[in-house]
């Protein structure tokens, strides 16, 4: 982020504008939305500016700006329309530590003006760091439509009621009250034409009579990484969470969706890396929920797949707490989708196995034989380090060395990688590829694209990488 967005209180602050043409007019129209004390420096100002000066809306000096004019200003605009003069103004401002905007010159500007959606007191600033001003305007248009004009009235009424709302016990009760105001009761009052202060009093009375909800734990599937692959229920749970206890594997883009006030705790396990003991995780969930928090236990993929879900549910149930499981898209589904393949297929495999590379050492003879059979499909999680063992056992039990195998790392994420190979070559291919991040091994499946490109298996000698 190059430009840090802040909301600046310009009440009674000095803002100087150098220039009196079109560029200055555009900035002045925006500045008039504030209570800034504006001075314009222009030898030959536009008629509008002279009129505004006569009406007392700004001060006008019919000359070029000087260093002493800038002292004590909060913001300066170089809007003369002349490159050299703008550069001089910018230099004066910078020399005095006054933030300067040079119209149409991103590089010379210390601050830029965002696209603004004005529903005062609600204001939304949209910036693109100069990269896509048209996109900013499109977004502004969409937000203007989305925020009906009544939102200003709701927020103004809300502001006047903030002290009264402190009668509610605790942050959560207050959050619930305001969520009801802006989500349902406020818009309903507007629609009916009920006076907003009366509607707020009625809502407060209802909430004061209401018992606080007890804490709870929701086990939520975060999916494989792409935030668009979250379920709507997962989004809602994250929106309402007080505490989010997440695995290390959960993608940052998904954590960003949690309520801003939520306490984020990484309680992770990742492959062979350092991990938080299960007891500690259970204790954290229970402690927070008992204190009244809505805890989201956020797990990568689907919580019911290699997520020690049963142990955690049991702990929460034994503690007498409410809970629910919100499923997610598991890594195998995302990996299969990324290679354009079905995990099952009529006539090939009527089922597929979901395995972890951690546990295969305990496999019985018949498990290996079943897996080795032609047409078998398995999704192997946490298998990167177990491939030599896996390959050896499968081939010993009669698996065709040319059985297709596809490894998908970081499925659904921007850094996804796909390696298509054969069973015999899998260990070497993985070793040379140096994959980073979680990977799922799809045994018995080749990417649709690779198969189309090649007449038949065996696959390539070197790993075929398919750009996703
Ligand atoms: N509950 C998760 C699995 C947790 S076990 C799920 O349903 O997906 C962790 C393993 O999941 C990783 O070692 C890896 O094998 C797999 N995995 C998780 N996310 C993945 C991703 N985005 N791409 C590939 N594999 C992934």
Short description:
Helix content is 38%, strand content 18%. It is an alpha/beta fold and 468 residues long.
Task: Describe the 3D structure.
This protein has 468 residues and is of the alpha/beta class. It has four domains: 14-113, NAD(P)-binding Rossmann-like Domain (Rossmann fold, 3-Layer(aba) Sandwich); 150-209; 221-329, Tetrapyrrole methylase, N-terminal domain (Cobalt-precorrin-4 Transmethylase, domain 1, 3-Layer(aba) Sandwich); 332-466, 2-Layer Sandwich (Methyltransferase, Cobalt-precorrin-4 Transmethylase, Domain 2). The chain has 17 helices and 18 strands. The strands form four sheets. Strands 13-14-17-15-16-18 form a six-stranded mixed β-sheet, with helices on both faces. Strands 3-2-1-4-5 form a five-stranded parallel β-sheet, sandwiched between helices. A hairpin with a 2-residue loop joins strand 6 and strand 7 (122-126). Helix 6 (150-165) packs antiparallel against helix 7 (170-192) and helix 6 packs across helix 8 (196-209). The protein is extended.
Keyword list:
about 475 residues; alpha/beta; Rossmann fold; Cobalt-precorrin-4 Transmethylase, domain 1; six-stranded mixed beta sheet; five-stranded parallel beta sheet; 18 strands; disordered C terminus; binds S-adenosyl-L-homocysteine
Q: What percentage of amino acids are in beta strands?
A: 15-25%
CATH fold-level name of the largest domain = Methyltransferase, Cobalt-precorrin-4 Transmethylase, Domain 2
Q: Name the poorly predicted regions.
A: 452-468
Domain count: the total is 4
For the largest sheet, list the strands in their spatial order: 13-14-17-15-16-18
Q: Provide the residue-averaged pLDDT.
A: 90
Which word captures the global form?
Answer: extended
Bound molecules: S-adenosyl-L-homocysteine
The residue fraction in helices comes out at 25-40%
Distance between the termini: 27 Å
Q: What class would the helix/strand composition place it in?
A: alpha/beta
Q: How many strands appear in the DSSP assignment? A: 18
Oligomeric composition of the shown chains: single chain
Largest sheet: 6 strands, mixed
* Number of helical stretches of at least 4 residues: 17
CATH class of the largest domain: Alpha Beta
Name of the CATH architecture of the largest domain: 2-Layer Sandwich
Estimated radius of gyration: 31 Å
CATH superfamily caption of the largest domain:
Tetrapyrrole methylase, C-terminal domain
């Amino acid at each position: 982020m190059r430009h840090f967005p802040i909301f600046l209180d310009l009440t009674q602050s000095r803002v100087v504008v150098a220039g009196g043409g079109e560029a200055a007019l555009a900035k002045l129209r925006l500045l008039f939305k504030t209570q800034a004390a504006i001075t314009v420096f222009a030898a030959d100002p536009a008629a509008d500016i002279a009129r505004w000066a006569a009406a007392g809306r700004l001060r006008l000096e019919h000359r070029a700006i000087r260093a002493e004019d800038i002292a004590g200003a909060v913001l300066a605009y170089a809007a003369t329309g002349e490159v050299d003069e703008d550069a001089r103004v910018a230099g004066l401002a910078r020399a005095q530590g006054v933030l300067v905007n040079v119209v149409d010159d991103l590089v010379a500007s210390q601050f830029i003006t965002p696209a603004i959606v004005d529903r005062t007191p609600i204001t939304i600033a949209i910036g693109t760091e100069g990269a896509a001003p048209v996109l900013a305007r499109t977004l502004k248009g969409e937000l203007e439509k989305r925020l009906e004009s009544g939102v200003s009235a709701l927020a103004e009424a809300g502001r006047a009621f903030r002290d009264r709302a402190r009668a509610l016990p605790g942050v959560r009760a207050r959050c619930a009250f305001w969520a009801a105001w802006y989500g349902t009761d406020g818009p309903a009052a507007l629609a009916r034409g009920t006076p907003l202060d009366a509607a707020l009093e009625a809502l407060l009375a209802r909430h004061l009579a209401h018992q606080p909800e007890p804490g709870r734990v929701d086990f939520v599937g975060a999916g494989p990484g792409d935030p668009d692959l979250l379920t709507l229920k997962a989004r809602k749970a994250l929106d309402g969470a007080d505490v989010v206890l997440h695995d290390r594997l959960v993608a940052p883009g998904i954590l960003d969706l949690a309520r801003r006030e939520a306490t984020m705790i990484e309680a992770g396990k990742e492959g062979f890396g350092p991990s938080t003991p299960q007891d500690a995780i259970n204790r954290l969930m229970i402690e927070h929920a008992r204190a009244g928090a809505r805890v989201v236990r956020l797990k990568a993929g689907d919580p019911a797949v290699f997520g020690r879900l049963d142990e955690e549910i049991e702990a929460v149930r034994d503690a007498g707490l409410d809970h629910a499981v919100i499923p997610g898209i598991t890594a195998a589904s995302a990996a299969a989708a990324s290679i354009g393949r079905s995990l099952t297929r009529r006539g090939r495999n009527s089922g597929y196995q979901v395995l972890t590379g951690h546990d295969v050492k305990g496999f019985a003879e018949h498990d290996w034989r079943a897996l080795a059979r032609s047409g078998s499909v398995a999704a192997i999680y946490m298998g990167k380090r177990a491939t030599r063992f896996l390959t050896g056992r499968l081939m010993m039990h009669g698996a065709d060395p040319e059985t297709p195998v596809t490894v998908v790392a970081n499925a659904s994420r921007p850094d996804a990688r796909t390696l298509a190979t054969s069973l015999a070559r899998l260990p070497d291919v993985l070793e040379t590829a140096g994959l980073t991040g979680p990977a799922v091994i799809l045994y018995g499946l080749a990417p649709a694209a690779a198969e189309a490109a090649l007449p038949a298996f065996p696959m390539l000698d070197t790993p075929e990488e398919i750009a996703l």
